[in-house]
Write a structure and sequence with these properties.
Elements (H helix, E strand, L loop, with lengths): L5 H15 L27 E3 L5 E3 L38 H9 L18 H5 L1
Antiparallel strand pairs: 1-2
């Protein structure tokens, strides 16, 4: 009866894995001589904000602009405004939910699909047939 752990199986294969690696042929180098791809400057697709209770707000309602002080001799008080600071609930994980909500709201206007009815990605049902 063989009571080998799964990690033991992996460690025994680690040395033989280097023998199985495939090499990427770079010769002839001229096959990579192509025109450099065109990249556009990034542009803003839209914006959203979070209100005081960290709820999604569509638009720039909470956007603030930083303007640096004109006087260079300023006494910086790092505790200024700390008494009214709204603490974020660290136990609630936000991940990228707000970003995904914005994408979902504007999926048709900002990310149009081709009118020909072709899918941009393969359907998983094709693989199951």
């Amino acid at each position: 009866m063989n009571m080998k752990r799964h990690s033991d199986d992996l460690s025994s294969d680690c040395c033989s894995a280097s023998k199985r690696t495939r090499q990427f042929d770079v010769w002839p180098v001229t096959r990579f001589d192509r025109e450099f791809p065109y990249f556009r400057m990034p542009s803003e697709l839209g914006s959203f904000s979070l209100d005081g209770s960290r709820e999604f707000v569509d638009g720039r309602l909470q956007l603030r602009v930083y303007s640096p002080p004109s006087d260079k001799n300023i006494a910086w008080d790092l505790s200024h405004g700390y008494s009214v600071f709204v603490h974020r609930d660290e136990s609630k994980k936000e991940y990228i939910d707000h970003l995904l909500k914005w994408i979902w709201l504007y999926q048709h206007s900002k990310f149009p699909t081709p009118s020909s009815g072709t899918l941009l990605c393969k359907d998983s049902d094709e693989n199951s047939m």
